[in-house]
Amino acid sequence: MIPNNPRIQKCEKPPCDFVKINVDAAIIDNMTGLGLIARDSDGLVLCGIADYRKNRMEGGVRRASLVNRIKKDREDTTIFGYRIKEIIGLLDFFTEVKINWINQMSNRVADCLRKLALNKHCTLSFDVEYPYDIHELVMIDSC
């Protein structure tokens, strides 16, 4: 459950040999933007993604989701529901996974990448050599 009064949370380092992945996504005006940043246990950037998608089914997704909720189907037939199941399936490859909701202000790099994708209608990925545009936020958000 998302807290009513979210607070800025202090960055927590993952245990040794773990990878911390922060993600931020939004759907605005029939567009989806996603930002992702992965860091090692020392807080060093391993990779990141800014992803832009033009949605074609926003109304259909809302209607199908509403119908599923009304009918109380156990199976979510929306594209969004399918993607969630796909993500959960991918998480099964890991021996240990912990998922937390955090406030947007505690997730600034992923938020910045998401905004970049939406504002520029672009998709980019990077490894340890990340874009200079996010360097200051990477340093502020580092643990």
From TrEMBL:
InterPro entries: RNase_H-like. It comes from Gossypium schwendimanii. The lineage of its organism: Eukaryota, Viridiplantae, Streptophyta, Embryophyta, Tracheophyta. This is RNase H type-1 domain-containing protein.
